[in-house]
Amino acid sequence: MSRDDVRRDNREIANQYFLAGLADLTASMGLPPTVRELQGHLAVSSTSVVTYRMNELIEAGFVQRRPSARPYDTRLWVLTDKGRAAAKQGSAA
């Protein structure tokens, strides 16, 4: 297994972890979590890591940025249909 294969596998595992965390918090709270809520729930070191992973999930089509009329809205991300299905199956590849 090459180093690139390991990196890809690690990225997929991390993205699945974040996808599951977003799904869990959204279900339990009834609305999308803030960056800090997601950071705390996933025990991640910084909010920039959360933002980085969420941007990867947006690019992959699992998450979308939540439209908001308020520029200061901190509940930024929602699962797409593809994201909900992947969270249920446990796969964000």
Structural description of this entry:
There is one protein chain. This protein has 93 residues and is mostly helical. The chain has one domain: Arc Repressor Mutant, subunit A. The chain has 4 helices and 2 strands. It has helices spanning 3-29, 35-42, 47-59, 81-89, and strands at residues 63-65, 77-79. A two-stranded antiparallel ribbon has the order 1-2. Helix 1 (3-29) packs across helix 3 (47-59). It is globular, with a radius of gyration of 13 Å. The two termini are 18 Å apart. The model has no long low-confidence stretch (mean pLDDT 86).
Distance between the termini: 18 Å
Helix/strand/pairing category: mainly alpha
Please give the radius of gyration in angstroms: 13 Å
The CATH architecture term is Orthogonal Bundle
Task: Summarize the topology.
Blueprint: H1 3-29, H2 35-42, H3 47-59, E1 63-65, E2 77-79, H4 81-89
Antiparallel strand pairs: 1-2
Care to give the gist of this entry?
Helices cover 61% and strands 6% of the residues. With 93 residues, the protein is mainly alpha-helical.
List keywords for this structure.
Arc Repressor Mutant, subunit A; single chain; mainly alpha; 93 residues; 61% helix; two-stranded antiparallel sheet
